[in-house]
Amino acid sequence: MVNTECQGTHSRLALCCKTSKIFSMFYKSDKRWLCHVDDDNYLNVPELMKLLRQFDHNQDHYLGRASLSHPIEALDRDTNQRVSFWFATGGAGFCISKALATKMMVYASSGTFERMCQRVRLPDDVTIGFIIEVLLKKPLTKVQTFNSHLQQLARIPTKQLQNQLTLSYSITEKRRNVVNMVSIMSDDPTRFKSFHCTYFRGYGNGNCPAT
Fold first, then answer.
1. How many CB atoms neighbour CB 59 within 10 A?
2. Lesser CB count within 10 Å: N end or C end of the chain?
3. Which among 40, 124, 125, 187 is annotated as catalytic?
4. Could you tell me which residue ranges the Fringe-like glycosyltransferase domain spans (predicted)?
5. What is the number of structural domains in the chain?
6. Mean pLDDT of the chain
7. Active site residue 125
8. pTM of the model
9. Same domain for 195 and 127
10. DSSP-assigned letters across all residues of 137-151
11. Does 176 map to a domain?
């Protein structure tokens, strides 16, 4: 775990601060892909590896799921012009190739990314879309198997769950949005434990019930 020393809130500036630190860490690494998922996502590692093997990390690739059915519009305060672009929602997860992430560093390293967020006054995942699609002129490759809580998760057929890259959930007093999975263990409101122990019990620390 890395202490970013960013504010521990969900504000735009706090999120952009954390994202800028992620880009700076990635730039210093020898990794081929920068993949972002939220801490309340289930990440299907075998499916992620299968996806990334289809793309060359030495080429510019931006992989993710759009949360809207149309490009978002924003005001670029540096040019005072309205711009339109797609972005991959952070709540579902996204991946950026090393080649593209390297090109982004002038806009996304520590300090500069926060200024970019202020430039469009939008959250970190939307700002990434602005940098990639508007400033670098690279398109989003839409991958529908990234899933955030914005999707109607119960509508994903149970037999297709194993092919999803990420899973999310939303549980409130008024709404329950979880995957269509029969719970095989107690204390599993998100169904993530049941999903993992049904399909991937070989991964992780073995906290699955005996079969």
1. 11
2. N
3. 125
4. 1-191
5. 2
6. 92
7. yes
8. 0.93
9. no
10. ----EE-TT---TTS
11. yes
- pLDDT given at position 182: 86
Residue type, 58: N
Neighbours of 109 (CB within 10 A): 15
148-175 burial, b at 16+ Cβ within 10 Å, e below that, comes to bbebebeebeeeebeebbbbbbbeeeee
Single-letter amino acid, residue 18:
K
> Are residues 192 and 120 part of one domain?
no
The residues, any chain, with a CB within 8 Å of residue 106's CB and separated by 6 or more, are 112
Render pLDDT for 90-106 as a digit per residue (tens, 0 to 9). Answer: 999 999 999 999 999 99
* Of 102, 90, 207, nearest in space to 140 by CA: 90
| Residues of the domain holding 187 | 153-199
Instruction: Give the span between the Cα atoms of 36 and 12, in whole angstroms.
Output: 17
Long-range contacts formed by 52-57: CB under 8 A, 24+ apart: 52/95, 55/97, 55/141, 56/97, 57/32, 57/33, 57/97, 57/98, 57/99
Angstrom distance (rounded) from CA 101 to CA 27: 8
Query: Residue 122 is part of a domain; what is its CATH number?
Result: 3.90.550.50
